[in-house]
Structures are given as C-alpha cells and as structure tokens.
Amino acid sequence: MDMSAIKKKCVHYSLFLLYLIVLIGVTETAMRIFFKGALEIIPADEKTLLYRYDETVGWLPVHNSFTVKARRLIHVEHNQRGFRDAEHVIGHHPRIVFLGDSFVWGFDVEKQERFTEKLRSKLANVSIYNLGISGYGTDQEFLLLTRQYDFYKPDIVFLVFCTDNDHEDNSHNFIRGGGYFKPYFITEGKHLTLQGVPVPKSWRYFIKQHDILSYSCWFRLMTKLYFKYLGPPRLEVKDPTFVIIKNMDQYVKDRGAQFIVGLQGDDPNLRQYLESSHIPFIDLSNPYIYPSHGRHWTPEGHTFVSEKIYHYLIRERHLEKKTAISRNIHSAVLRQR
User: Fold this and answer.
1) Measured between alpha carbons, how far is 98 from 127 in angstroms, rounded to an integer?
2) Residue 157: pLDDT over 70
3) % of the chain at pLDDT higher than 90
4) C-alpha torsion 241→279→83→85, nearest 10
5) Confidence (pTM)
6) Euclidean distance between CA atoms 318 and 110, whole angstroms
7) 306-324 b/e with 16+ CB inside 10 Å = b?
8) Domain at 46-336: CATH code
9) 8 A C-beta contact, residue 135 and residue 170
10) Coil, strand or helix at 102
11) Among candidates 238, 235, 210, 242, which has minimal Cα distance to 224?
C-alpha cells in the first residue's frame, strides 16, 4: 500500500474519530438539557453520604461528621460504633436501647433536640442508647438488634415502629427512595426465613464508587439501563411485620429483657395484634410534625414523645421490672449450679 493510500485511510479514521467525538459531545449536551431530571449528576445523598454498604442489613452508618439538608440544615455526627449518638459506654445503670428508622435517628432535628437526649435528662440513672438508622424497616432493625445485643445487653429494647411506611418496607427487598436494596423475611407460620442476602448494591452506590465516570450522561444512562433491566429484581412478599415483631419480642424475652413498641402513628391492626400478643406498646402519634420530607417529628414533637415515653415507663414501672427480672435470672443461675 503506497503512502497516499495510507494517508487517505488516516484522514478517514481521523474524520470518523472527530465525528464520533462531536456526536458524543452533542448527544451528551442534549441529554443534559432534555433529560436533566432523569440523568442529572446525583449528589451524595443520605445513604451514600452517611452510610456504607453492608451485605447483611443493606447499609450501616459510618463514623464521621456531615451536614445534611432537607426541611432544615442539620449537623450529623456518628460515634465510633457508627450511631448518631454520644460514645456508647456500658456502665452499671439500667440500659434502654432504642431501635427505629429516621424518626429515632432524628431526621430534620439536631442531635440534642431528639427524644432520646431529652429522656436522658429525665432518667439520670438510666443508660439510653440510640441505635436508629434512617430508612430501616423492622426486618433490618431486628437484624441490627441480633448483631448488637451482646455488646449492649439491654434491660429494655424499645422499638419505634413507623406506621407510615414500615409495613411497606418489610414487604419489599428495596426501599422507595433511591432504590436501595435490603434484606427481607418470608414467613412460614411463626417462623422467619431471611432472604436477599448478600444484599445487592444499588445503582446509586455504583455511581458513588465511580465519581469521575459518573459525570458522563452516557455512563449514567448505560448503567441505569443495566440496573433497571439486567440488575437484581425488585420483589414484594407477604407482609411479615407481625411475625417479625413477635420474634423480636421472643428474642428479647429469652435474654431476660423487656420489649416495648412505640407506634409513630395510628395502626389499629398492629395495635390489636400487640394487645392479643401481650406485647407492651405506647401510642407516640402527635401533631408536631413537618409538612414534607417524610413528615418527621419537629423538635416540639420530640419533646412530646420524650414526655410520653417517660411517663409511660414510670407509670408501668418498667424500670422496676428490670430489677425483678434480673433477680429472677440470678436466682435461676444459682439453682442450676
């Protein structure tokens, strides 16, 4: 092949490459203009900013400090164990562990405005631990409890059940916001079988791991199509909520502790189930909520909740029951010896 033919091929390849670059550039610009909502660059959202992927529970907090904005700007600091709380030190006082989602974690309120902090000032001789994790369903909270129980050895496990969405969360292998995947349970009578583990990674996690490439709309488009059509399926199962709560109650009682449920809102069916199952519960519904972004409790709402829980614990003498339970367990151990 003579030099002129080689030069002609080089020109053709160069023109084709230039055409390809221009085409990509034009289509990239067009996608940014016309598909801005669907393919916009995703900023680090709550899950990718505050949490790390976990193959068993879906996501867990990371030890760090952040600033998060929804209805208002709040400062977030997770302790060494990853929870939004003071450092957790295990002492000799009675211990209460609070489980829940963003209502317990404290979405749209500062840490000191939450009901757990307000309870500490009322119950000076009680150790209170906030293990709330935003976005969790009751299934994840149960798994978290089994993972953390031996460290805290609580006297009371207090589950705050979000009546707004926990039934739906427990019935799916993903959560609505952002499409994050999670584990789930299927029920066989009173028994639970864990499914969806290891938990698949979501598109948002994938994008977060490829920060530079994610600036391209083409990259976001291709990966989004892959996750939508070739990625893990989104599943719905029969609502296992009642069985999960019953198993949590039994798990806690088997270890000599008390289990209490706080209802974030009205749920007649769950209320009836708790009554028939003799599981203590308290209604925490109140009018002090934000009008959007999940309708979480305002600082006044957290004050309201802390007052209700405090008076409930005192009225029902749950802290006194702790002493009786511990005494009975100690006597049983002595008899076995």
Assistant:
1) 11
2) yes
3) 61
4) 150
5) 0.84
6) 28
7) bebbbebbeeeebbeebee
8) 3.40.50.1110
9) no
10) helix
11) 210
| Residue that the structure tokens 């609505």 belong to | 176
Confidence category of residue 335, pLDDT binned at 50, 70, 90: very low
So what's the pLDDT on residue 4?
72
Between strands 95-99 and 127-130, the pairing is: parallel
Structural domain spans, the chain: 3-34, 46-336
Q: What is the pLDDT of residue 26?
A: 64
189 sits in the region (left: phi over 0; alpha: psi -120 to 50; else beta) called left
Structure token digits, residue 5: 């033919």
Integer Cα distance of 76 and 152 in angstroms: 23
Q: Could you give the dihedral angle defined by the CA atoms of residues 264, 296, 203 and 143, in that order, rounded to the nearest 10 degrees?
A: -30
Which ranges in the chain belong to alpha helices (H)? Answer: 3-34, 36-39, 46-50, 102-105, 115-122, 138-152, 166-170, 203-209, 217-229, 241-254, 268-276, 299-315, 318-336
Which tops the pLDDT comparison, 174 or 4?
174
CA dist., res. 169 & res. 188, Å (int): 19
Q: Are 154 and 319 in contact (CB under 8 A)?
A: no
pLDDT digits (tens, 9 = 90+) for 210-221: 777 777 777 777
Least confident of 264-278, 280-294, 321-335: 321-335
Rounded Cα gap, residues 55 and 143, in angstroms:
12
> Is 44 a residue whose pLDDT tops 80?
no
The answer, yes or no, to whether residue 159 has pLDDT greater than 50, is yes
The HSE-up count of residue 68 (CA atoms within 13 Å, CB side) is: 27
